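Field log, afternoon session.

UNIT: design team B
ACTIVITY: writing a sequence onto a fixed backbone
BACKBONE:
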């Protein structure tokens, strides 16, 4: 995986984003011009906490619908700014959260729900992900109507997921009515390096009406449209979504840590940036 620094520390101005050919579909999408509308560069002092105007911590140890083993906390031990990065750290430790659940691992999960939500555009993050059996880092989005509609009716876009037992593969997935959970439309992408944790990479989606393109660095590896849905599936990617970053421990997909898994493990996030297409309406929040 190459060290993509194309967007590193760019000014908040008009940015041209040239899209590479979609070789999997035999078509070249037109170059798009985007305007940066929201970002977090994580440039605070070392040891500082997240910007509360941009992120909300989700906490608890109820398994999160995936049989995860950690308790998510808002402690600095699990999330803090360091050397220009957000560092989300999973630790092996006995911990009982405010929800009364006792767990043997801790980590962090943050979201922009209620603070920033947008429909369509380019969403990207430059991330260095951890290694090890049972590790499950993710950069993803949920529909902002999840509290009223529920999941999967709200829709889910997984921009990047990796499971430790597949260190050289990242996944991009969409979930919705009729294609959720294990039935989500998933596409794996093999990275160049033997292990994905060797370096930072930029993970992104470009989201338009009836189309979502998934990228790893400059490589477009899958495009999703309503035509890809199974019979009875419903395309629900037409309303604002919010962003989520988390590092899970264990779960039904990655499996549990074992004797080969070293702790602590950290996911480093250099930046998160959201663009709207030039001329499009402003984001919801």
């Amino acid at each position: 995986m190459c060290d993509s620094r194309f967007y590193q520390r760019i000014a908040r101005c008009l940015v041209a984003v040239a899209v590479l050919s979609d070789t999997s579909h035999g078509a070249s999408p037109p170059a798009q011009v985007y305007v940066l509308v929201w970002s977090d560069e994580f440039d605070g002092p070392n040891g500082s906490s997240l910007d509360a105007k941009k992120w909300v911590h989700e906490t608890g140890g109820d398994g999160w619908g995936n049989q995860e083993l950690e308790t998510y906390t808002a402690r600095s031990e699990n999330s803090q700014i360091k050397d220009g990065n957000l560092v989300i750290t999973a630790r092996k430790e006995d911990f009982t959260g405010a929800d009364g659940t006792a767990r043997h691992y801790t980590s962090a999960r943050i979201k922009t729900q209620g603070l920033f939500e947008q429909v369509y555009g380019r969403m990207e993050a430059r991330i260095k992900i951890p290694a090890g059996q049972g590790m499950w880092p993710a950069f993803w989005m949920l529909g902002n109507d999840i509290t009223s509609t529920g999941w999967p009716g709200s829709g889910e876009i997984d921009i990047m997921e990796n499971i430790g037992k597949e260190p050289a593969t990242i996944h991009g997935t969409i979930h919705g009515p009729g294609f959720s959970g294990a039935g989500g439309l998933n596409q794996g992408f093999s990275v160049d390096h033997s292990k994905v944790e060797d370096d930072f990479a930029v993970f992104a989606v470009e989201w338009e009406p009836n189309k979502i393109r998934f990228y790893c660095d400059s490589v477009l590896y899958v495009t999703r449209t309503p035509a890809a849905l199974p019979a009875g599936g419903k395309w629900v990617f037409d309303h604002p979504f919010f962003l989520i970053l988390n590092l899970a421990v264990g779960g039904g997909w990655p499996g549990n840590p074992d004797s080969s898994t070293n702790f602590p493990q950290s996911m480093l996030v250099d930046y998160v940036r959201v663009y709207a297409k030039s001329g499009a309406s402003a984001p919801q929040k």
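LOG NOTE: Helices lie at 146-149.
NEXT ACTIVITY: expression trials, pending approval
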